[in-house]
Amino acid sequence: MSGIRLDHVSKRYPNGVVAVDSVELDVADGEFVVLVGPSGCGKTTLLRSVAGLEDITSGTLYIGGEDVTGRPPQQRDIAMVFQDYALYPHMSVRENLGYGLKLRGTPRADRERRVSEVAHTLGLEELLARKPAKLSGGQRQRVAMGRAIIREPKAFLMDEPLSNLDAKLRVSMRAELSRLHERLGVTTLYVTHDQVEAMTLGQRVAVLRDGVLQQVDTPQRLFHKPKNLFVAAFIGSPSMNLVEAELTGRSVRFAGFELPLPRGSVAADRTGKAIVGIRPSALEHGGGAEHELPRIGVVPEVVEELGDETHVIFTIEAPPVSADAVLAATEASDQSEGKLFAGDERAMFTARVDGKRTVTVGDRLELAVDTGALHFFDPATGLALDAGTRTELVA
Amino acid sequence: MSVALERPAVQERTGRGIRWQRVGLHVFLAGAAILWLAPVLWTLYTSLRPFSDTAKNGYVSLPGALNFENYSQAWTQADLPHYFLNSLIITLPAVFLTLLFAAAVAFVVARLSFRFNVALLIVFMAANLLPQQVILTPLYRLYLRLPLPEFLSDSGLFYDSFIGLIAINVAFQTGFCTFVLSNYMKTIPASLGDAARVDGAGVLRQFFGIVLPLCRPALAALATLEFTWIYNDFLWAVVLVQSGDKRPITSALANLQGAYFTNFNLLAAGAMLAALPTLIVYALLQRHFISGLTLGASKG
Amino acid sequence: MATEIAAAGRVARAKQRATRLTARDRVAVGFMVGIPLVFVVGLVWLPTLASVYLSFTSWDGIGGLDTINWVGTTNYDQIFSIYPPFWPALRHNLIWLAFLAVLPTTFGLLLAYLLDKNIRGTRAYQSVFFLPVVLSLAVVGFIWQLVYAPEQGLINNLLGRTEQGEVINWLGNPDLNLWAVLIAAAWRHAGYIMILYLAGLKSVDPALREAAAIDGASEWYAFRTVVFPALRPINIVVLVVTVIEALRAFDIVFIVNKGRNGLELLSVLVYDNIVGEASRIGYGSALAVILLLISLIPIVTYVAHAFGRES
User: Fold this and answer.
1) Contact C200, C231 (CB under 8 A)
2) What is the pLDDT of residue A337?
3) Does position C2 have pLDDT exceeding 80, yes or no?
4) What is the per-residue DSSP string for B62-106?
5) Contacts of B282 in chain C (CB under 8 A)
6) Mean pLDDT, range C108-118, rounded to an integer
7) Cβ of B201 under 8 Å from any chain A Cβ?
8) What was the pLDDT predicted at A389?
9) Would you tell me which of A5, C154, C222, C248 could form a disulfide with C217, CB atoms 3.0–4.6 Å apart?
10) Is the pLDDT at C262 greater than 50, yes or no?
């Protein structure tokens, strides 16, 4: 029975800063869970606490069913892959791979056998005599993985192992990591700040903000059913379009548009202010969409043609949402970050339309809105409106 | 760093101007270099001239003959090999111990976090900056009283013993090396230490197996510096060693002066021989020498 | 079972820290720090404290520790009033400091600046100027004796003054010998400073100089306004090194004439008072303490600088 369980784990620094706030997380045996969040959210601290490189101030940590809260790293039967790989520069690949086993007193014959096996699995056989300085980025990454695999631990802990690779390599290594996990089936806790990586690698993804776990779910559910503004704004690229709106009970009004709500929408029969979220993919070119869907007329300011999809960026007559959650999700320190020209107070929306359609800057365009896919959030709490709870919205 | 410059007149630089500048530069530097080498060259010259030659013609004269007579004389008559050996017996262990101690303390200070780290570093660093005379008296008296087992010291005391000299050199030089090494060790990524911890390495393994091998450049630089400084030391030897036959070569030179004070040629040869090891180290390892000094001066 | 564990976990505050060093590690750290500490504290700091203590006592060193008697500030009073070599020695140390700070230091800076231009032969020039630093001060003292010797020395012979009446006694004449020895010390000091500044110049961002050149600054102007200010950290080190060297000066002077007759220095006075049969330990210690107090200025400066930048 393996797996990692965090039971109300907190880490508080002597100066009072709380890096990890009462996190409860259950990683099942063999599961690949990704910990994601903007920089400074505490994900690396949390990972290091699981590794034993940092102390847990309160709560309990279980690895493989055992309480390891007070144990030093080498007694937790975990292996870690670091962001900069942390390969010992003065040792050859062979020695790097075998170091952990050597320290644990594994007999030489066993050690050499395991090193050959791992080298074979990862295609490192020809590199065994080389030193890390003479390896490429991708090769170093594989050695780092090999060092973790060879110990056959109860869990892998990975700290942004792909972020030092260039873009194309990152994509191919992502696929390799998935395949490796498929093959070895070891419980893995993986940290990244890149939500695309999180969505593609994780069987489940845990979103962290300022040390507090926001939501732990499958990538699909995170995308389609975000629990709060932060998760909604953080997950998805390009980000979800957000704006303050008015609910009338049967429609939603914002920026001069009024969209009728479909029957069964969570916002049906509600009145008051809410924040509405529209994923870029919920906006379609008016020409090809179903007739029943409502349209909005916009003037594109920027058109990014990517081949099989086109991003249409336009402003709407409403200010951008300035909630802390949204700012935190986009890692902006204030409203003006991300804007090259100061003084433009209107929100910018992005639509993802079919790349075969022609869109021109300045030419008025009709976009169909999939009102069934709208998200609504309570402006006061940031929580997603949900059919179950009928909280009163501020009028 | 922003600097506001007013706009001075743009300087016209013709091709001609630059060439003259360059020539002037070379002339200046070459002249200064010759002036700089002059004393050493003079000593070398004097050492190569037989005594009979200079006795006849005076020292500032063209050479009659040039040979190594003085050198062989200094070597045998002045018993130089013996003093060289003394120097080696003192210097080599001292360099080794200094680096070992400094590396150990630097490791604790740089890679482990204790509250006393900064205070510890100051204790070591400041020790290196004190003028030697400040501790001379008590050290002298201490050495006269501190016992050593007979097989380690003829005198049975720290005074007048190799161990005594080694000890004070180590104590005095460790500070500088600790400072340099701790700065250097800080540049080793923390993740290496983390990886070693996860792999199961304790403090000693981390020190000897991971951090120390990675400090080789700094250790080489410091070894070069320390070898030169400890070899060149004069004060400790003069004060703490009484019997002439235990003295290292630098202080033995002073004795030589007393014995052969009219024979400048011989003394010159002796001085050149005494300087030889440091000159050889310098010639071969100049790079390390300089990097050691700059590591110590700049900060991280 | 799971709920029980959960309940217990929720209540428990972490009892043991995962990052605590194992017992074995703690012992190792103890030795790694402890042994060097014994050396440094035992052979440097305790003697320093002892020096301070002894400066308030009178002791001839021959009797046991029980013959030490406390005399308060008597030693200091005597040094300042009736000890003939003291004021000259202090004056000489200060002259030494001023000389080193002005001449070889600026010359070293000049050399570094010129050699930083990477002209042909830079390496060779560097080696030449740095050579004296590598030599033992005893050897340096000896070399310069050859140069300064009255009848046989290089200078006098070049000047043609080798006859009895005309000889310039560089090292014997108390008006001249300090300066003669200072030239020898400067000969050595310049090379040391040159290396420090060379390293400093290399760390000055070349973009700064290029920007200045594009803006049309002359070389001297650029140096004054851009390069020199960027050297501030090195300047502090240079200053500290110079002061410490000036206070430490001993070897050359000792080799020449054991520090008499115009070559008195504080360091030699300390030596005089403690080595020998009729030693005046208290006196020597008081002199040493004066030396210590003066050197605390550069030491504190350096430590503050080194650790100021740390935080």
Assistant:
1) yes
2) 58
3) no
4) --S---SHHHHHHHHHTTHHHHHHHHHHHHHHHHHHHHHHHHHHH
5) 131, 134
6) 86
7) yes
8) 54
9) C222
10) yes
With respect to residue C69, please indicate whether it lies within any of the assigned structural domains: no
Determine whether the interchain pair B234/C146 forms a contact, defined as Cβ–Cβ distance below 8 Å: no
CB contact under 8 A, A52 and C9: no
Residue A39 has pLDDT above 90, yes or no: no
- What CATH number corresponds to the domain at position C136? 1.10.3720.10
Q: Note whether C32 and C158 are same-domain residues.
A: no
Contact A57 C14 (CB under 8 A): yes
In chain C, residues with a C-beta closer than 8 Å to the C-beta of A69 are 14-16, 18
Domain hosting residue C235, numbered range: 84-310
For residues C164 and C282, membership in a common domain is answered with: yes
C10 in the same domain as C142: no
Task: Give backbone dihedrals phi and psi of A46, rounded to 5 degrees, phi first.
Answer: -65, -45
In a domain, C75, yes or no: no
Predicted confidence (pLDDT) per residue in B220-238, tens digit = 889 988 999 899 888 888 8
Q: Which of C125, C226, C244 sits opposite B33 (nearest CB)?
A: C125
Q: How confident is the model at residue B300 (pLDDT cuts 50, 70, 90)?
A: very low
Task: With respect to residue C204, please indicate whether it lies within any of the assigned structural domains.
Answer: yes
DSSP letters, chain C, are -HHHHHHHHHHPBP-S-TTSPPHHHHHHHHHHHHHHHHHHIIIIIHHHHHHHHHTTEE--SSS-GGG-EE-TTHHHHHHHHH-TTHHHHHHHHHHHHHHHHHHHHHHHHHHHHHHTT--TTHHHHHHHHHHHHHS-HHHHHHHHHHHH-TTT-HHHHHHT--STTT---TTT-TTTHHHHHHHHHHHHHHHHHHHHHHHHHHTS-HHHHHHHHHTT--HHHHIIIIIHHHTHHHHHHHHHHHHHHHHH--HHHHHHHSS-TT---HHHHHHHHHSSSS--HHHHHHHHHHHHHHHHHHHHHHHHHHHHTT-
Judge if ipTM > 0.85: no
Do the beta carbons of residue C293 and residue C76 sit within 8 Å?
Answer: no
Determine the average pLDDT of the residues in B139-146: 82
Select from A10, A12, A55 the residue whose CB has the most chain C CBs within 10 Å, as the one to mutate to test that interface: A55
- Report the alpha-carbon distance of residue A388 to residue A30 in Å, rounded: 33
Judged by CB atoms closer than 8 Å, whether chains meet at B134 and C292 is answered as yes
Q: What average pLDDT is seen over chain B?
A: 82
pLDDT tens-digit readout, A320-359: 888 777 777 776 555 555 556 656 678 889 999 988 888 8
pLDDT at C256: 77
The reply to whether C66 falls in a domain is no
CB contact under 8 A, B191 and A89: no
Q: Does the beta-carbon distance from A82 to B199 stay under 8 Å?
A: no
Q: Are residues C98 and C8 in the same domain?
A: no
Same domain, C263 and C140: yes
**Domains: count for chain C:** 2
- Contact flag C138-B289 (C-beta cutoff 8 Å): no
Cross-chain CB nearest to B195 (options A48, A78, A86) = A86
Q: Summarize pLDDT for B82-116 with one digit per residue, the tens.
A: 888 989 999 999 999 999 999 999 999 988 878 88
Q: Does residue C139 share a domain with residue C43? A: no
**B246: phi then psi, degrees, rounded to nearest 5:** -100, -5
Regarding whether C21 and C104 lie in a shared domain, the answer is: no
Residues belonging to chain B: 300
Chain C CB contacts of B140 under 8 Å are 274-275
Same domain, C232 and C283: yes
Q: Is the separation of the CB atoms in C306 and B300 below 8 Å?
A: no
